[in-house]
Amino acid sequence: MAKRHLAVFPGSFDPITFGHLDVIARGRRLFDELVVAVGRNPGKDPLFSVEERVEMAETLVRELVKQRPGDAPVSVRAFGGLTVDFAKSIGAAALLRGVRNLSDLQYEVQQAVTNREVADLETAFVVAGQSFAYTSSSLIRQITAMGNDLSALNSMVPPLVAEKLREKKAQGHPVLLRLTADPVVEG
Q1: What's the rounded Cα separation, in Å, for the pair 67 and 147?
Q2: Is it the case that residue 47 has pLDDT exceeding 60?
Q3: Under CATH, to which class is 6-132 assigned?
């Protein structure tokens, strides 16, 4: 009997973007099953709680699955600790990563080699579509914090996420307030 190939697409998804959804859609065609693993990046203050990020991802993944019902199933799970430990605990064959540019590739290859050496876990890369090459969750948080007109978000995130970002801005979320307080350095 053939082994099922389960992949984990890990990230903080703070917030989830059209680029993330593109990676999920393509990962569904490459693997038998995909788990979107919502984790915490210890180097960043999250704008959304883990529960909020999981809820948004679940809603958007459900919509994605409806569009292409024949592709691999996808689930969304929160996790803590090391990505490789989580992946191994659920029997993953690989990690799925999206690469937007050469800087991403350099970092991701270093991580992939480490994950293979330390945990015997392979990494599969998909290259971001051209329209997602310069979109990042960090950029989206900055636009939300500093922008007066948030319509620019419409090309980067689904409407559900744009609405949640507007709510966070209206509430004066501390992460957004810190971004507006930090000096902007122009190069």
Answers
A1: 32
A2: yes
A3: alpha beta
